[in-house]
Write a structure and sequence with these properties.
It is built from ten helices and 13 strands. It is α/β, with parallel strands linked by helices. The two termini are about 35 Å apart.
Amino acid sequence: MIYVNILVTGGAGYIGSHVVKEILKKGHKPFILDNFSKGHKEAIAGGEIIVGDLKNKEFIDRIFQDYKFDSVIHLAADSLVGESVERPDKYYQNNLIGSINLLEAMKKSNINKLVFSSTAAVYGDAQEIPIIENSLTEPKNPYGRSKLFFEEILADYDQSFNFKYISLRYFNASGADPDGNIGEDHDPETHLIPIVLKTALGKREKLEIYGTDYDTRDGTCIRDYIHVNDLARAHLLAVEALAEGSDSNIYNLGSGTGYSVKEVIETARKVTDKNISAEPSERRPGDPPVLIASSAKIKEDLDWQPKYDDLNTIISTAWKWHNNNPDGFND
């Protein structure tokens, strides 16, 4: 294996910091490009940090003139569904215009390999379970649309410029690196597992269960949780596949197993040995009852296998991080 220089946009974020750590573990050299609107310098395990914004076209062009990259992992994006509905302009500027600036800078520098951080939000209300890659894509919000639009742009660049990409459609990224040094620290926090654990720590008085009357085994929504380290390994497998001549492709990334909101809470109570207060609340508009991925395609093509695929392990690693860092990162 030839060790390579990898640009990681959004490399200081939750998923990005775990990807950077995996890059270092594999012996490659990461370059972290982040504007630090949400990322944390403290989360970066190594590599060279480049501070800047993808919306600044001249800056991005200059980065590609000053550095030699072999491949790009593109994670930088805004990702809050509710905010995307309120501020679609922000999402299309950051997630589309910034991404196009990145593609153009790559094209000028004759770099034609990109691993893209996509999302299960491209599917909208799933028509079939488990969701496969050729399931209907009908996103219900500007966030999901921005990701799907960029996938279509990538396909056009492939056809016209022989630009090779692998798009990874994440389901619910969760957990933390088992060493407890990096983990999930968002503001605001919208993900279920960290909200549950913040409640266990007393940082929140209680959590709300949005809907208890769904047609599921216990009435609450069921979701597919994938450990962030398993996500990170998938990015490196994708980089290596492209380096070895793989054609462009799209893959789901999930555990293939669904857990309900109540099951997450109950597992967290056992892991933390805390009485976590949870109260039923009204459904949120647009929440489908069940979202579970089929990751059979990436397992077959790239030999990816999740290592942390049970809920107890996922929550235990997240709890280690939150318990060690109750106020998140210090930067």
